[in-house]
Amino acid sequence: MLSLAELMTNREGFGAFVMGNHALARAMAEAGTAVITSYPGSPTPEIAEALQAPPEKSRPYHFEFAANEKVALEIAAGASLNGHPSAVFFKSVGLNVAADSLIQLPLMELPGGMVIILGDDPGANSSQNEQDNRWFARMSYMPLFEPATPAEAYVMYKEAAELARERRAPVLLRLTTHVCHARENVKFSELPPAHDWTPRFDAAAGPYVPITSSVFPLKRRALEKLDAWAFYGEKSPLTSVYKASQPAAGRRLGLISSGLPALCALEAVRNAGAPVDVLKLGLTYPLPAVLVSEFLAEHDEVYVLEELDRVLEGELKALAYDKGLACRIHARKGHGELMGELSPERARACLAGVWPKLFPAPERARREAPAPRLPQMCPGCGHRSAFHAIKRALPPGAITVGDIGCHSLGYLPPYNMGEVLFSMGHSVSTASGLALGNSARKVVAFVGDSTFFHAGMPGLVNAAWRDSDITLVLLDNGTTAMTGHQPRPGNGELGERLNLPAILGDLGVKFVRECDAYDQAKLDAQLKEAMEYKGFAVVIARHPCMLKFMRERRRANPALQAQHAVIDQAKCARHYVCAAEFACPSFIRHEDGSVTVNNELCIGDGSCIQTCPAQAIGRDK
Amino acid sequence: MAFNIYLCGVGGQGIGLLAASLAQAAARAGLPARACDTHGLAQRGGVVSSHIRLGADALTPLVPEGEADLVLALERLEALRGAAQYLKPGGRVLYYDTAYQPVSVRAAQAHYPTVEEVKKEVEEMGGQAEAVKAGEMRDPRMQNAALLGRVAALGLIPGIPAATIEEILAEMAPPAALEENLAIFRAARAQ
Ligand SMILES: Cc1ncc(C[n+]2csc(CCOP(=O)(O)OP(=O)(O)O)c2C)c(N)n1
């Protein structure tokens, strides 16, 4: 079996059954992309997994995780200014963080070219919304490529990177969750010769400074480049037409789509044996107007099947209107069809809305779903211990503000903490606002350590500056846990270990306490003191991510035998604090009311021991 | 028609190895295959799933609801959930019989199904369920290997020979756990 390191460093071509994210990483190496940056976020972290598989010295590229998406984007842009082909990747909402610099890039000459990879998440599988970043191509005058499969992601990346370099421009490559995570056979090619690292930045190739007088020339150039992309789109090899196997008897029917939704549509059309031709676009912005008008002209009715927002629909209708085409353009209707991820079945249902006879509904029995299983914090998670203490320390009526990370799960039962959440790093400032004019209800915010460095610091500086009357609990597990344990600044994995209490002190925070989240008595005292304090108070509740910790221990010692908690059945008074309030997943509640420990799950951390009111929990060794 | 396999379990059980082994085995056996993980990295203790579709007419990677020929689960409650949502009438369910209670069960608000209840409910769906159980394991993630062994023994996936599954497992299992995984696989296969 091909290892990920071999996938990245094999000099010759080969075929392999791989995930979209891994195919994309190989494409970067083959395209000679020299600098690649990112901030972690689903569905993209596996791109980094492949990029980081070979030892640093044998990588034909520089890769780094940056402190946030904007920083990552700027590093890649800087490299491209020097003539180094570059790429940056992040999740859908990462674009919001990067946008301030991203929006400027199409105005600039980027001699190395640059590919910006967006991991959009229709269906909000692992995101706080399902924002449709296709809009951003329009807003920023950037071309947009949309692959449907791992093999297409590989091909389109290489095409996009080459064109970006030729045109000294940034390009958007938009993947969606189930393109990133799909697996299929992909045929790869050889790697290019080693990259020439001569720094070639030339201010004369600019201007690079958009002061008033240069904004218009820059914008004109961006618009001209956009026209050139449209011209490319007319002949792009990334467009496909799938003719119906039998032609329509009456009206000629067609469908226009892109990405995975186009394949959902095609599957629905073939399953139904419907006489509908499918046009699948690869470059979806700017629209190849001639090609699309011809398709519209050749059909009497065309369905525009999109996922999420109505982006192409308006542009196609405008085009048909401008050209005076008689083609009837259909699109999705109702809010339901504008939400969630498409599937062949959902595509069928959309099409049945206008062509009911061609797309009859399949028969399916409705079945009842069993007890739900919500995600929960892992056994031994320090966040659980922190929430257990916080819940007890909160004064009545308190308002709790959550943030993004594993600790967002505190919102779910049984803790129900962190009742407001906008975006990464919002918690401190949102809490500051909730505290204004409010002396009646204590406001308590949570933030994780990676998020603190990502976008939490400005809000924290502000809260210290204004001495907001809030308590912040900084949940420090030493890593970016939720997205798969990427390093964060200052945890000592790369570079210097930073002293968080000292940083907070330097930023002007007067009340700082710190404690291991497992130490419930101490944490409880610190939390109460902080909540009684008038002004901005920070408690750092620290405990290493136990999932990462246990993995590392098992790697170091494969024969490691975990200890386990045991419940002394004679002492157990059936309070169910362990199983239902502290709620570690390792506890089993039996039908007879007794509680035992599931040794498959318990890691022997012992964080539960202090929480049993009957002191019935001990360890087995 | 494509042959559809829906795999599911609880975050942390190592469903990735199970799904990747079967998908790679299909690819090695020369079957047109598409697969997809749907859980990413972020499903701590929640439901995780993977999809495999075999056959040239599967253009998309996700198994349509109610159209799985085979549901493979790493946990009992998840076997029932997977079947309820994905199993097609006449399909098979094979699951490793371990029980991870969700919060609602631990708080006595919901019922956790017994082996008999799973069997009966799957029969009512027009399917057939079988529980797999092996002895004590050093690492519960090795339950994957037991499940793979039963899949191989029962020939549940047309076109993938048992030997190919074993070959892939031997290549994909973590080196430190290779011998144990193979032993568990072979014992389950011989059962
Ligand atoms: C703008 C943005 N970028 C990335 C993400 C993806 N993301 C979700 S949770 C998370 C990690 C948070 O890490 P940390 O704050 O340390 O909390 P932990 O998960 O370790 O508890 C990230 C990066 C996101 N939701 N939004």
Tell me about this structure:
The complex is a heterodimer of chains A (621) and B (191). Chain A is α/β, with parallel strands linked by helices and 621 residues long. Chain A has 4 domains: 4-234, Rossmann fold (3-Layer(aba) Sandwich), CATH 3.40.50; 240-352, Rossmann fold; 382-544, Rossmann fold (3-Layer(aba) Sandwich); 561-619, Alpha-Beta Plaits, CATH 3.30.70.20. Chain A has 21 helices and 23 strands. In chain A, the strands form 6 sheets. Chain A has a 7-stranded mixed β-sheet, with helices on both faces. A 5-stranded mixed β-sheet of chain A has the order 9-11-10-13-14, with helices on both faces. Chain A starts with a helix and ends with a strand. The mean pLDDT of chain A is 96. Chain B has a 6-stranded mixed β-sheet, with helices on both faces. Chain B has a single domain (3-190), classed as 3-Layer(aba) Sandwich (Pyruvate-ferredoxin Oxidoreductase, domain 3). By secondary structure, chain B is α/β, with parallel strands linked by helices. The model of chain B has no long low-confidence stretch (mean pLDDT 94). Helices cover 39% and strands 22% of the residues of chain B. At the A-B interface, β8, α10 and β21 of A face α1, β2, α2, α3 and α6 of B. Bound molecules: thiamine diphosphate (TPP). Thiamine diphosphate (TPP) binds next to α5 and α17 of chain A.
- CATH architecture tag of chain B: 3-Layer(aba) Sandwich
Mean pLDDT across the residues of chain A is 96
CATH topology of chain B: Pyruvate-ferredoxin Oxidoreductase, domain 3
**What is the arithmetic mean of pLDDT of chain B?**
94
Q: CATH homologous superfamily of chain B - what is it?
A: Pyruvate-ferredoxin oxidoreductase, PFOR, domain III
Instruction: Indicate how many domains the architecture of chain B comprises.
Output: 1
Major sheet description of chain A = 7 strands, mixed
Strand order within the widest beta sheet of chain A = 3-2-4-5-7-6-12
| Biggest sheet features of chain B | 6 strands, mixed
The percentage of residues in β strands of chain B lies in 15-25%
Query: Helix amount of chain B, in percent?
Result: 25-40%
- Distinct small-molecule ligands in the complex: thiamine diphosphate
Task: Work out the strand percent of chain A.
Answer: 15-25%
- Number of H- or I-type helical stretches of chain A: 21
Biggest chain-to-chain interface with counts = A-B, 63 and 61 residues
Order of helices and strands of chain B: EHEEEHEHHEHHH
Q: What quaternary form is this?
A: heterodimer
Classified by CATH, the class of the largest domain in chain A is: Alpha Beta
Which structural category fits the helices and strands of chain B? alpha/beta
